[in-house]
């Protein structure tokens, strides 16, 4: 047996294996061609002198250090011969060559063969996605650190996927709040309520994003202690708006938020926080929200809020509330994203002026009761809009 990179000439054999391995949700000829010619991915095949024995497909997305094992299949006649294990090792080597320090995947709960394969290979189960597949089966989340010396200490921050393009700030704040007070429910109603309170511009011509003062005020009203660091005392993101009328609305809203922050005693510091300063506050129990430029992750220039979940010597870890379903991502790609510390420093600024903004959320001794309507009502599950993943129940065959 030998393992090599797949080529376009292998598509017929890959399709034949795909049809034999999966009853539904199969990769098409067009998808294989895309993966082999255009996607930031690696497809590896195992073969002997007669036939294709199996394949593994690994995706490399975002400006993070995570690879995603998307699909693996082994021909029926080759099972039990170590082909699956060899493909997993080759996939890990390909991920390491792409400077990915972590491999993640999803497996159906009823796919015990794949669970055994990856658990023997050193993967740990770190979560469950309920009602994940088309037939309502659960998905088990697995992860392996490809560099064993990197062992981050992560906060137990829940994940909530934003449901609208402009609610990354409220969704990040909701995650931080529930990390500090688990009784808070994460719902779309709360997401929209915080957005209404926090947005800088609210006009019929377009939805507005949330600035640091708006998010800080929303948290403080719910009984949390907050502190804001921003390097520019002016109206955040006003240079990205051309309309004089919009600029005037943004200015008035910003001035009102400044006045309310002062009345409520919210510390607003003109300056920046480096990674070491953020980590020191995280170590003291603070959950930071950080404004980043999304260009390095999504190749689109828009401001975006994330919530920090941990640090180690190499990475800053974040929950990103945006799940890029259109590009085949799932929540697995957005949870505890490891971003190199130097890359995170470059991301944590936006626009021509290099706006840097951080909102620090911490527990307050004066907390509202859990049934306070301002917290969003009775507890329920929150995240929405999951992308269906693909894991076969057959031996050693799995799609993620």
TrEMBL record:
Domain N-acetyltransferase: 1-147
Gene3D superfamilies recorded: 3.40.630.30, Cysteine proteinases (3.90.70.10)
Keyword Acyltransferase among UniProt keywords: yes
Region (Disordered): 367-400
SUPFAM superfamilies tied to this protein: Acyl-CoA N-acyltransferases (Nat)
Pfam (any one): Acetyltransf_1
Highest taxon above the source species: Bacteria
GO terms, molecular function: acyltransferase activity, transferring groups other than amino-acyl groups
Keywords, sorted A to Z: Acyltransferase, Transferase
Signal peptide (from-to): none
Listed PROSITE patterns: GNAT
Keyword Membrane (UniProt): no
UniProt-recorded name of the protein: Ribosomal-protein-alanine acetyltransferase
Species in which this protein is naturally found: Lamprobacter modestohalophilus
């Amino acid at each position: 047996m030998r393992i090599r990179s797949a080529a376009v000439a292998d598509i017929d054999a890959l399709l034949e294996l795909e049809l034999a391995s999966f009853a539904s949700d199969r990769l098409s000829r067009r998808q294989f061609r895309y993966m082999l010619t255009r996607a930031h991915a690696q497809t590896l095949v195992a073969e002997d002198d007669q036939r294709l024995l199996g394949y593994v497909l690994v995706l490399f997305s975002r400006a993070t250090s995570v690879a995603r094992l998307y699909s693996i299949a082994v021909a029926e006649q080759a099972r039990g011969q170590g082909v699956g294990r060899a493909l997993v090792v080759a996939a890990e080597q390909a991920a390491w060559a792409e400077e990915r320090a972590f491999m993640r995947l999803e497996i159906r709960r009823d796919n015990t063969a794949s669970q055994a394969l990856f658990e023997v290979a050193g993967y740990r189960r770190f979560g469950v996605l309920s009602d994940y597949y088309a037939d309502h089966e659960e998905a088990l989340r697995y992860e392996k650190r490809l560099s064993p010396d990197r062992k981050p200490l992560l906060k137990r921050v829940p994940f909530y996927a934003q449901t609208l393009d402009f609610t990354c700030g409220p969704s990040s704040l909701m995650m931080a709040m529930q990390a500090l007070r688990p009784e808070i429910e994460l719902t779309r109603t709360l997401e929209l309520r915080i957005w209404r309170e926090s947005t800088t511009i609210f006009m019929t011509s377009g939805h507005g994003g949330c600035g640091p003062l708006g998010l800080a005020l929303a948290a403080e009203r719910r009984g949390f202690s907050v502190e804001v660091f921003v390097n520019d005392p002016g109206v955040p993101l006003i240079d990205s708006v051309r309309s004089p009328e919009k600029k005037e609305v943004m200015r008035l809203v910003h001035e009102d938020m400044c006045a309310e922050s002062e009345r409520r005693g919210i510390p607003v510091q003109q300056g920046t926080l480096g990674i070491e300063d953020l980590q020191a506050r995280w170590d003291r129990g603070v959950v930071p929200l950080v404004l980043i430029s999304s260009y390095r992750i999504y190749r689109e220039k828009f401001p975006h809020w994330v919530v920090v979940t941990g640090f180690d010597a190499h990475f800053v870890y974040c929950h990103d509330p945006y799940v890029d379903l259109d590009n085949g991502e799932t929540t697995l790609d957005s949870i505890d994203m490891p971003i190199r510390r130097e890359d995170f420093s470059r991301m944590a600024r936006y626009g021509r002026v290099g706006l840097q903004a951080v909102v620090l959320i911490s527990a307050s001794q004066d907390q509202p009761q859990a049934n306070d309507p301002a917290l969003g009502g009775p507890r329920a599950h929150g995240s929405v809009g999951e992308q269906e993943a693909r894991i076969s129940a057959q031996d050693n065959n799995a799609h993620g």
